[in-house]
Amino acid sequence: MTVKKRNLTSTALAVVVVGSIGLTGCSAGAGSSGGESGGSGDSTGTLIVYTNSNSDGRGEWITAQAEEAGLDIEIVGLGGADLANRIVAEKNNPVGDVVFGLNNMYFETLKAEEAITAYEPEWAGEVDQESGDPKDGAFWPLVEQAIVTVYDTNKISESDAPSDTSDLWNDSKWDGRYEVNTALGQATPQLILAGLLTQHLDEDGDLGVSDKGWEEVEKYFAHGSPAVEGTDLYARITRDEVDFGVLPSSGIAARDAEYGTKTGVIAPEVGVPYVTEQISVIAGTSKQDRAEEFIDWFGSAEVQGEFAKEFSAYPVNEEARAQALPEVIELIDSLDKQDIDYNLVRENIAAWVEKTELEYLP
Question: Which N-terminal residues, if any, form the signal peptide (predicted)?
Fold first, then answer.
């Protein structure tokens, strides 16, 4: 279903290129300048690896492990939307050589823009290709994550916690006690918005969404506590500023260790959004062979298994999954996937974001 469109403001146009949804928290990591050795003709320099999944020590770990494997790489870390836009903008003179961490939605956009190129990695037979790009093999899956609403069971027992996320904004008991991220140019807030709206699709509604759907969005933002830039959700939970918030599943273990929390997760009947991080060669790189070598190495069962243990990840690689932490496997297995038509979301997220920003943000 394609919903009715509006003319988009510059804010909405900023997200339409990438279409939406990506996930892991990001920072501009080491080498964020991007260097000058990408696709400009130098086939011997440092391999430039673009990612939105370099936070919490991931970038440093990958760089060190690659060096041990004889791979000279530089991690360039950007947020999902910025990264996808940058790759598209550079496609006629690429700086990066490999990109990973963005999910299917971003990669579908890069594929449509001919900004990435197909390559079948050595570990292709160890992953479910349906999780990547089964038609053309332009990108391949690495890690799967659930986007979950969390709380500290040291403060709120599982029996007292809401059974559905919608209870947070429909029950006055939780008024102002859950964090909402109003930065809708970012990936995870867009995913939460899409998860809300796709439960209330209506071809005759505004932008293809029923009045009920927009009422839910209005209440979600009106009754939440806006996120504080630079302040971790768990810091706010431990200071009793909020009780609930949204987090990718791989971030739970590290925060429990840091803050002394014991995380509980709301598991709504409709399920929770899932994303799958992908990897691909950037089209036009002069380091094609080395880019393929990096993909073969990084996506291998051995490296993905070590990555899973270090960062509480849930690898798509079936052999690597055996090394994932038991609590991570248990969590993922316990959470149903929300049925979201991501092709529809990709077509309409910019208009949905624009309406939300203009009408519902505090």
Answer: 1-30
pLDDT per position as a tens digit, 222-244? 999 999 999 999 999 999 999 99
Which residue segment(s) compose the domain that 229 sits in?
146-273+338-359
177 in Cβ contact with 242 (< 8 Å): yes
Residue 5 within a domain: no
Q: What's the confidence (pLDDT) of residue 255?
A: 94
Residue 222's closest CA among 160, 178, 273, 267? 178
Does one domain contain both 66 and 174? no
Does residue 230 sit in the same domain as residue 309?
no
Over residues 113-144, the pLDDT tens digits come to 999 999 999 999 999 989 999 999 999 999 99
Q: Are residues 256 and 207 in the same domain?
A: yes
- What span, in angstroms and rounded, lies between the C-alpha atoms of 23 and 17? 16
Domain-located, residue 76: yes
Q: Check whether residue 289 and residue 216 sit in a common domain.
A: no
Instruction: Say if residue 65 is in the same domain as residue 111.
Output: yes
Q: Give the residues across from 98 on adjacent strands.
A: 49, 281
Token output for 214: 């927009």
State the chain's mean pLDDT as an integer: 88
Is residue 18 predicted with pLDDT exceeding 70? no
Question: Could you please report the per-residue DSSP string of 195-242?
Answer: HHHGGGEEEEEETTE-HHHHHHHHHHHHTSEEPPTT--HHHHHHTTS-
Q: What is the pLDDT of residues 269-279, one digit of tens each?
A: 999 999 899 99
Q: Are 319 and 126 in contact (CB under 8 A)?
A: yes
Tell me the three state secondary structure of residue 328. Answer: helix
For the segment 355-359, the average pLDDT, to the nearest whole number, is 97
Q: List, in order, residues 6 or more apart from 8 with CB less than 8 Å away.
A: 16, 350, 351, 354
Q: Are residues 241 and 182 in the same domain?
A: yes
My answer on whether 209 and 342 are in the same domain is yes
d(CA 67, CA 249): 28
